[in-house]
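ESCALATION

Customer reports they have been waiting on this structure for their group meeting. Please prioritize. Original submission:
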Amino acid sequence: MTTSNTSTTADSGLADTLSAGAEALGLALSADQQRKLLAYLALMAKWNRTYNLTALRDPAQMMTHHLLDSLAAVKAFAGARNVLDVGAGGGLPGIVLAIWAAEAEPQMRVSMIDTVHKKTAFLTQAKAELQLGNISVYTARVEQLQVEQLFDVITSRAFAELNDFINWSNHLLQPGGHYIAMKGVMPQEEIARLPPGWKVEKTQSLQVPGLDAERHLIFIERS
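Update from on-call: job pushed to the front of the queue and completed.
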């Protein structure tokens, strides 16, 4: 089999995995959303050869561990208008959320912040190539970020301990807003160390198609 045919077969396999995964998650993705998610995965795999955006190298693993992992959380953001993804890295969940929201939640804007220039350069490139007009990208430390409009939801995926996450970013959360932290195993010890004035509103267990690992969303608000 030629390299071209092998590539086509791999691309077809990824498309099938995405389609089946979205169906299992109860997400009705349009053809355009699926196309953009696959283009994002291809772009991440391409940049990853040089910039080390993720430790994973196999696109099939990246599909399950990154794309479907992020897609499993998107419904939790329904109704949000202004979302900040802290420590966005390669755009997880920010880019995935923005692709989904462009059609599912058209009022939503997604901002992503990271301190690493090569990562925010990738995010800026992804925004341009995927024509995502609902995205803003910041290269900065979150504790130093100042914005005109505060965020109603602040999220992160495997960014920092909950205590630090809240202490560094709570100046950016609007009154009545909340955090959605994406975690693996339920972080009971981190929850016990939440800063004074904050409480867990609820937790949600996620089942990621094809991934045999614990995933949880932790919703945190001012007490």
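Sent to customer with the following note: The first helix runs from residue 3 to 24.
Escalation resolved.
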